[in-house]
Amino acid sequence: MVKNKAKKILFVDDEPLYAQSYGEGLKALGYEVELAKNGEEALEKIQKLHFDLLIVDLIMPIMSGISFLKKIRRKKIPIIVFTTLEGETDREDAIKYGAKIFVKKGETSVDALKEKVELIFNE
What we know:
Elements: E1 8-12, H1 16-28, E2 32-36, H2 39-48, E3 53-56, H3 65-72, E4 79-83, H4 88-96, E5 99-104, H5 110-121
Parallel strand pairs: 1-2, 1-3, 3-4, 4-5
């Protein structure tokens, strides 16, 4: 039995290349992965389904990652922020609204992201 099978991840990113490639990498580890293109779509999915982890971009159309984090911060779902933003304010805001880990998109390999996911699930 795969130990990760029951863990469900919502990957929120408006860039299909990132969502698909990183999502497939996480699926290969046995995680269930759902995709959302923006914060609004992610909110709808959270209202209907249970997730064990959220991986969220900050720059998205319709609803930004920070706006999304503000709306869900009481849900107590672990969050990894996965973004091209690297400003200290962005990092501080993400952590303030519930992010446990802040990862730089484009500089993080699929394997490195998998390590961060496993870190959270092994807490």
